[in-house]
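Lecture notes, part 5. Sequence design as translation. It can be helpful to think of inverse folding as translation between two languages: the language of shapes and the language of residues. The source text, in C-alpha cells, appears below.
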C-alpha cells in the first residue's frame, strides 16, 4: 500500500512559505514523529535527503566561477548554515524543557530539520567549488562577524528565556515570532531570486521553506492553545515579545543582508540573459529590482505574515510591537 504523504509536506503540492505560514493550521499533536517520518522523510526529502536537490536541479557552471554572483551565494549560504547550526543547538533546550510529549516530539523533529538545513547549505558550498577540506574554515571566515553581531544575541535571548527563566511558552514565542518570523521572508526571497540562476540552491531553499511552514504554524498553535487555557499569560508574553523586538532593533542584520544583495545585483546585471522576463513577484521582473527594493519587500512580507500569525495566536496587539517599518 502506498504511503499517504500530507499535501503540505509533498514537494509538488506544498504551498510557498508565505502562503503556508499565513494560511495553514497545524498543531504539535498533528505533527508528531509518525507524521515527520511519513511526510518529511518519505515526502519532502524523497530523492533529496543528502544534498537537498535532485540531479535535475543542477549547480550551473557560472556558480563555480569567481564573481559577484558566486560571492553573494557563498555569503548567503555560509551565514545561513551557521544560523541553522546555532538554531539546532538552541532547540536542544526546547526539547529538554518540553512540558508534554507532543511538544517534545515536535521540537525533536524541528531540531533535526534545522540540522539538516545546515548540512545542505554547507554541502552546496562544496558543490560550488569550495574544497571540502577548507569548508569549515571558509564558513568561519564568511560568518564570524554575522554570528557575533546577529545570531549570538538573539539566540542567547531565546535560550535564556526557555532555560534560565523556565518560560517554555515565552521561548516558543521568541523562536516563532521574533526569530523565524523575521527571518522567514528573507528565505522566501532567496528561493525566488535563485530559481533560474542556481536551481540547486533554489531547490534547497524550497525544501527548507516547506519545513519552516511547519515550524511557524505549529509554534503559533502552541502559543494559541496556551493562551486559550491561560489567558492570564498574555501580558507576560507581550513583555517577552517586546524585549525580543527591542533586542532586534540593536542587531545590524540589514548591514549583512545588503552586502550580499549588492553582490547579487552586480551578478544579476552580468547574467541578466539567464533570467529574462522572469517575475520575482507578480508584475515585477527580477532584472528590474534592486537591492533596496528586494529588502523592503521582504520587510513588508514580514509585517503581513506577523499580522496574520499574531491574530491567530490571540496576540493582535503585538503586531505594532514587531512592525519593521
Amino acid at each position: 500500500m502506498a504511503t499517504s504523504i500530507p499535501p503540505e509536506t509533498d514537494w509538488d503540492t506544498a504551498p510557498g512559505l508565505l502562503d503556508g505560514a499565513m494560511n495553514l493550521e497545524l498543531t504539535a499533536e498533528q505533527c508528531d514523529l509518525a507524521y515527520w517520518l511519513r511526510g518529511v522523510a518519505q515526502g519532502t526529502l524523497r530523492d533529496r535527503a543528502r544534498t537537498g536537490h535532485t540531479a535535475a536541479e543542477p549547480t550551473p557552471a557560472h556558480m563555480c566561477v569567481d564573481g559577484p554572483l558566486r560571492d553573494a551565494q557563498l555569503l548567503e549560504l555560509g551565514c545561513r548554515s551557521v544560523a541553522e547550526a546555532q538554531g539546532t543547538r538552541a532547540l536542544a533546550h526546547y526539547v529538554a524543557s518540553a512540558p508534554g510529549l507532543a511538544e517534545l516530539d515536535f521540537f525533536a523533529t524541528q531540531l533535526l530539520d534545522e540540522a539538516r538545513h545546515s548540512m545542505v547549505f554547507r554541502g552546496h558550498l562544496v558543490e560550488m567549488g569550495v574544497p571540502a577540506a577548507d569548508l569549515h574554515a571558509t564558513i568561519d571566515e564568511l560568518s564570524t562577524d554575522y554570528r557575533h553581531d546577529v545570531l549570538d544575541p538573539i539566540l542567547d535571548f531565546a535560550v535564556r528565556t526557555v532555560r534560565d527563566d523556565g518560560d517554555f511558552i515565552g521561548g516558543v514565542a521568541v523562536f516563532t515570532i521574533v526569530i523565524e518570523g523575521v527571518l522567514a521572508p528573507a528565505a522566501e526571497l532567496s528561493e525566488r531570486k535563485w530559481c533560474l540562476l542556481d536551481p540547486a540552491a533554489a531547490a534547497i531553499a524550497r525544501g527548507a521553506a516547506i519545513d519552516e511552514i511547519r515550524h511557524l504554524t505549529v509554534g503559533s498553535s502552541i502559543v494559541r492553545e496556551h493562551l486559550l487555557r491561560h489567558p492570564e499569560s498574555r501580558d507576560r508574553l507581550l513583555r517577552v515579545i517586546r524585549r525580543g523586538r527591542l533586542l532586534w532593533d540593536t542587531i545590524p542584520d540589514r548591514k549583512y543582508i545588503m552586502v550580499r544583495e549588492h553582490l547579487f545585483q552586480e551578478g544579476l546585471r552580468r547574467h541578466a540573459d539567464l533570467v529574462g522576463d522572469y517575475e520575482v513577484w507578480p508584475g515585477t521582473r527580477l532584472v528590474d529590482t534592486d537591492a533596496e527594493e528586494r529588502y523592503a519587500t521582504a520587510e513588508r512580507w514580514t509585517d503581513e505574515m506577523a499580522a496574520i500569525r499574531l491574530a491567530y495566536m490571540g496576540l493582535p496587539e503585538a503586531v505594532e510591537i514587531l512592525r519593521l517599518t
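The translated text above is only one of many valid answers, since several sequences can fold into similar shapes. The two ends are 51 Å apart (CA to CA).
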